[in-house]
């Protein structure tokens, strides 16, 4: 039997705060929330949060990428929950892109895809 992907796990210092950050900041439903373990449903992929001691360094993890409808509104919400914008908001041809650090130092990538102009023939 091949290995089965289960979830992305992030080591965090405060599980309830991490659950709140992702659920309120990105609008993702909570699957499990306890002091030592939490899970968020990211459109069929589980993001799990595991509690670690406060003296352990966090933030060295994969980049979690999300598509959003309103990048500026989402950034404001995430900043209100403790995130920090990393660099500037970029606007390549495929949309608006921003990188943010969570309160635990994990990197998020936000993409607001470009809208397709109905009169564009390309």
Structure characterization notes:
This protein is α/β, with parallel strands linked by helices and 122 residues long. It has a single domain (7-113), classed as 2,3-Dihydroxybiphenyl 1,2-Dioxygenase, domain 1 (Roll). The chain has helices spanning 15-26, 71-80; strands spanning 7-12, 30-33, 37-42, 45-51, 64-67, 84-90, 95-101, 107-113. Strand 2 and strand 3 form a beta hairpin. Helix 1 (15-26) packs antiparallel against helix 2.
How would you spell out the order of helices and strands? EHEEEEHEEE
Rg of Cα set: 16 Å
Broad structural category: alpha/beta
CATH T-level topology = 2,3-Dihydroxybiphenyl 1,2-Dioxygenase, domain 1
Helix content: 10-25%
Task: Give the biggest sheet.
Answer: 4 strands, mixed
Shape: globular
Q: What strand order characterises the main sheet?
A: 1-4-3-2
Overall mean pLDDT: 89
**SS elements, strand count:** 8
Query: Which architecture per CATH?
Result: Roll
Q: Output the CATH class name.
A: Alpha Beta
What's the number of helices? 2
CATH homology superfamily name: 2,3-Dihydroxybiphenyl 1,2-Dioxygenase, domain 1
Beta-strand proportion: 35-45%
